[in-house]
Amino acid sequence: MSSKPRTLSSETRQIAALPWRHGSNGVEIMMITSRETRRWVIPKGNRMAGKTDAEAAVIEAYEEAGVQGDVMGAPIGWFRYGKRLKSGRVQATIASVYPLEVFIQLGAWPEDAQRERRWMSTEDAAAVVDEDELAELIRDFDPGRGTE
Hints:
Blueprint: E1 12-23, E2 26-33, E3 40-41, E4 44-46, H1 53-65, E5 67-71, E6 77-84, E7 90-105, E8 117-121, H2 122-128, H3 132-140
Parallel strand pairs: 1-7
Antiparallel strand pairs: 1-2, 1-4, 2-3, 2-8, 5-7, 6-7
InterPro entries: DDP-like_NUDIX (IPR047198), NUDIX_hydrolase-like_dom_sf (IPR015797), NUDIX_hydrolase_dom (IPR000086)
GO molecular function: bis(5'-adenosyl)-hexaphosphatase activity; bis(5'-adenosyl)-pentaphosphatase activity; diphosphoinositol-polyphosphate diphosphatase activity; endopolyphosphatase activity; metal ion binding
Organism: Brevundimonas vancanneytii
């Protein structure tokens, strides 16, 4: 998987955060539920004017998961998924994933009433997501390796 995916003209580009921490049994990933379907996902959203994609990923992690920390400057990869719109239409979307080392977990955050959040092992987190490319990114994530 190349670090710069070829984006099809019909695809929407998004950014995503992969919130992680060192747990007692290794690396843990903060997973959240989506608002509409309640599937397990990672925080993601649209690119933001005036912000780098890494800065936007930090904002999404705060708003959707209630976590704060440091993000690596480069994405660890990307994944494609079908974003279901309110109209019922599915929009082809590609999201670049930025690892965010979590230092603060808030008790209240902007979307806390709309989502569940849970720390999971990388194996469990990879198993609960629907997107194969995201599962692979989670399974292969190694904070000691850095970005490629």
